[in-house]
């Protein structure tokens, strides 16, 4: 490369009489120099930068793919947990409804038992009152008979 620059400088010194558009050996040398510079820059700068950019693009694509897969998994888990929560709520409502039915059945049974006991007590009280009424009537009849007999004896003895 150094030899090439030296050769170009010697050629330009020997042929310095031309103007702006002289077509001599400097034009192909400049083209050759441009190609060498392009190849050198391509190898030194463009290729590593291109590789880094390609790696970065691949990393971004992989990250996006991983993120979308994680998002899908999170959505699936969220849906699964929501379904489980809804099922748990339904089961809890069913348990509550069954407990309410059982408690209503127990309460209605207790009410029926209490009503039956009250009816039995009322029937016993009614029987006892009837019995006491009959005894009172018998006692009154006996007293009425005694009083009637006393009245008759007093009326007849007079």
Which structural class do the helices and strands define?
mainly alpha
Radius of gyration: 62 Å
DSSP strand content = under 5%
Characterize the main sheet: none
Mean pLDDT figure: 86
Low-pLDDT stretches: none
Shape: rod-shaped
Question: What's the β-strand tally?
Answer: 0
Helix/strand order, N-terminal first: HH
Distance between the termini: 180 Å
Residue share in helix:
over 70%
Tally of helical segments:
2
Description:
Keywords: ATP synthesis, Cell membrane, CF(0), Coiled coil, Hydrogen ion transport, Ion transport, Membrane, Plastid, Transmembrane, Transmembrane helix, Transport. InterPro entries: ATP_synth_b, ATP_synth_B-like_membr_sf, ATP_synth_b/b'su_bac/chlpt, ATP_synthase_B_chain. One of its GO terms (cellular component) is proton-transporting ATP synthase complex. It is found in: Cell membrane; Membrane. Belongs to the ATPase B chain family. With 158 residues, the protein is mostly helical. The protein has 2 helices and no strands. It is rod-shaped and about 190 Å long. The termini are far apart. The model has no long low-confidence stretch (mean pLDDT 86).
Topology:
Layout: H1 2-14, H2 26-157
Structure summarized in a few sentences:
Its main location: membrane. By secondary structure, the chain is mostly helical.
